Amino acid sequence: MYNHAVFCIRKELPVKTIPLHVNGRTATVAVDDPDMPLLYALRDNLGLHGPRFGCGLGQCGACTVHIDGNAVRSCVTPLSSVGKKKIVTLEGLGTTDNPTPLQKAFIAEQAAQCGYCINGMIMEAAAFLAHNKTPSEDQIKQALAQNLCRCGTHLRIVRAVKRAAENV
């Protein structure tokens, strides 16, 4: 009886360097696949943990970032499609010492329970509030409808967005 070993031969792909404009700074990532998801470059190459891996299908919103001011799902956005566009992650919105009014509102309303969805919720809400300064509660709910929260803090999230809109 012979032992048959299966060997995987990995074809070495040429490494490409791709410049990105992230949170007001220029960064370069070295990748072997320029069509890899932007999420992976942000987390694995740049060490940013604002965008989170949730579903990998663009359905939950945990990976939401801004590209040129628009909320996008970074898990389904190919790195090669970004080009010279400006990317903002949660780390680029505000700081611990100087949070944005939206971040302050999320804290005041205690909108996070497990906290996994909150980064995506904040990013989606920030893009929404940039276009609609005085939204109704129904408009807020509609804007956040595609972001999933499994632990049920939806009411506090909506209150936080409403509070931020009123305090800006």
Strand content: 5-15%
Total number of distinct structural domains: 2
Low-confidence stretches: none
Largest sheet: 5 strands, mixed
Secondary-structure element sequence? EEHEEEHHHHH
| CATH uppermost class of the largest domain | Alpha Beta
Helix content: 25-40%
Strand order of the largest sheet: 2-1-5-3-4
Sheet/helix structural class: alpha+beta
Second-tier CATH architecture of the largest domain: Roll
Average pLDDT: 92
**CA-CA gap between termini:** 76 Å
Oligomer: single chain
CATH superfamily caption of the largest domain: Beta-grasp domain
How would you characterize this protein structure?
It is a single chain. This protein is α+β, with helices and mostly antiparallel strands. The chain has two domains: 16-92, Ubiquitin-like (UB roll) (Roll); 101-166, [2Fe-2S]-binding domain (DNA polymerase, domain 1). The protein is 33% helix and 15% strand. The chain has helices at 38-45, 90-93, 101-108, 118-131, 137-144, 154-166; strands at 16-22, 25-31, 64-67, 70-73, 86-88. A five-stranded mixed beta sheet has the order 2-1-5-3-4, sandwiched between helices. β3 and β4 (70-73) form a beta hairpin. The longest helix has 14 residues, at 118-131. It is elongated, with a radius of gyration of 19 Å.
Supply database-style keywords.
single chain; 168 residues; alpha+beta; Ubiquitin-like (UB roll); DNA polymerase, domain 1; 2 domains; five-stranded mixed sheet; 6 helices; 15% strand; elongated
